[in-house]
Amino acid sequence: MKVVLYARVSTARQADHDLSIPDQLKQLRENSQQNDHEIVEEFREEGASATDANRPAFREMMRFVLENNSGAEAILVLTTSRFFRDALGAKIYKRRLQKEDVRVISITQEVADDPTGKFVEGIFELQDQYESDINAFHTLRGMKENARRGYFNGSVPPFGYRIETVEDERGNHKSKLVPDEGEAAVVRRMFEVYVHGVEGKPVGSKRLAELLNQAGLLYRGDKEWSKQRVQERLADRVYVGEYYYNKRESRTGKVKPREEWILVPVLPIIDRDLFNRAAELRKQRRPVVKHPPSVTASPALLTGLLRCGKCGARMSLETAKGGAYRYYNCSNYIRKGKSACEGNRVPQEDLEQQILEHLGEKLFTVERIRQLVKQLARELAKFRRRNNGKVQEVKRQLDDVRSRIEAQYEAIETRAVDLALVGERLRGLKREEAELSLRLEELQRSKQIPRHLFRTDNLQKIRDGLREIFLSNDHGLTKRYLNFLLDKVEIAGNEVRLEGDTAALCSLGFAPNEEGIVKHSVAVPPVVLSWLPGADSNHQPTG
C-alpha cells in the first residue's frame, strides 16, 4: 500500500520529548517497513496546533494526496491527535479523503475498517478534542497566574523591551520584560520629538516616521517606521510600566472585556507626564473638525476664527438698531468695554463676502486643480500597487473559506455529520465568504483618473464647481470648509490677515491613504494672506 507519513508537534516541549518529529517519523517508517507499505512522501509540521486546518504542511499534504495523482492510499500518523484535535474537523477531512479512497491510519490506535472500527475511531477523535480543550483551559489558567506574578508569557517582547530569564522562588525559569537600552533610546527620542517638535515646529506621526528612518533609528529587523507603526508605539501604555496580558482571544483576535485583562507591571521607559502629553496631542491631531459643534452650528460664518488684532481675543457678533445691522466686534470690548480693548467693529456681511471671494480667487485656480489631480493620480497608482499583495491574500482566504464550505456540504451530503450540528458553523462560513468577496471586489475596483479629466476645460469645470459651492448660500457647508482651511482670521484696523495651511485643501477629497480613505495629499508651506478690504492694490499673498 502506498502511504504518506505525517508528523506534527505543537510545542517545543513536545519536540524535546517522545513526540518529537524524528521520533514520530522513525516509528512511522518502521511500521511501513513491517507492513510492506511504500512511502511516497513525508510531511513535517513543527509548532502548529491541530485544532484547525490552518497548518502549512497539513494543507500541502492534503493537496498532494487529493490533487497530484500521488496514488497514496493512506496517511499514516502516530496517533489520531497528530492529524486533528477537533472531532468535527477530523470527520470532514477524513470524509474528503475517503471519497478518493484514502484512509487515515493511526499506527498506535489501529481499528478495523468497518462500522465498529469507525465508532471506536470517533471515540478517539472526541477524546483528542476533549484533551485539547482541557489542555487549553489549564494552559490559559497557568499563564494567567504567571502574568499575575509579574512574568511575561509571550515570545516577542514589545519594541523597547527584551526578555530576561529569571528564577522564581521555586527555582523555575521565568521570563521578565526589561528595557532594551538600544530600542528604549529610540522610544524616548520618538516621544520627545512628537511632543516638543523640531526647531519649534510640530511633528506629526508621519513626519516622525520619516525623521526616524532618515536618522537610521529603524524598527526591528531593519524595518522602516511607518505612520501606523509610530502611532501604535505612541499609544502603548507599556512604556509607562503597564503591560497587559489576556487582552485578546487567541483564535479570533477579538479584544476581551477590560476586566479580563491582567496587568503585568514592568519598568517604565517614558515619564508618565510625557506620555500623557503625547496622548493629548494625538487626540488633538485626529482628523476631526477643528472647531466645536457650537461654533460650526452658529449662523455667523467666521465665529471661532476671528481674532481681534489689538488684544488677541475672539470676535463675536453684535447687533444694532434692533437687529437690523450685524457686526463682528472684539469680545473683550463687548463684555468689558474700552478699558479692556478699544474694539474693532466690522460689518458682518461685507467681511464675510470679501474673505470668501479672496479665498475663492486664490485657492481655486486651474493650475492648483491640475496639480491636485496629478497628485491624486500618483497616489492612486501607489494605492493600486500596495493593493496587489492585499488582493492575493484575500483571494487565498476566499479559496480557503470556499474549500471549508465545500467540505461541510460534502460531510452533510454523505451524512458524516448532522446538519443541525454544523448549521451555525456553515452560516458563519457563508457570512465570511460574502465579506471576503465584497472586500475583494472593493480592492479590485478600478481606481484610475480618466485622461480627459486633465483637459483644461474639465479642470475649469472642477474649479468653477468648487468655487460655486464655496460661495453658495449654504453657510453650514461653507463654514465647515473655512474651519478646515483656516486657523485664524485676524482683524487689525482695516487690515485682514488670514492664516491657514493649504494642506487642508488637499485633504478635501484628493489623496487616498493606505486604507483607501481620502484624507491628505502633499505637504504645502503655510499660507499667510494680507489685504485691505476694498483696496485692489493689496490683494497679494505675503508668504
Explain how this protein is built.
The protein is an alpha/beta fold and 543 residues long. It is 48% helix and 16% strand. The protein has a five-stranded mixed sheet with strand order 9-13-14-15-16. The chain has a four-stranded parallel sheet with strand order 2-1-3-4, sandwiched between helices. The protein is elongated and about 105 Å long.
Shape designation: elongated
Computed structural class: alpha/beta
Low-pLDDT stretches: 288-297, 502-543
Largest sheet composition: 5 strands, mixed
- Strand content of the residues, in percent? 15-25%
Helix content estimate? 40-55%
**Tally of separate helices:** 18
Rg over CA atoms? 33 Å
Beta strand count: 16
Strand order, largest beta sheet: 9-13-14-15-16
Q: Measure the end-to-end span.
A: 85 Å
Mean pLDDT: 76
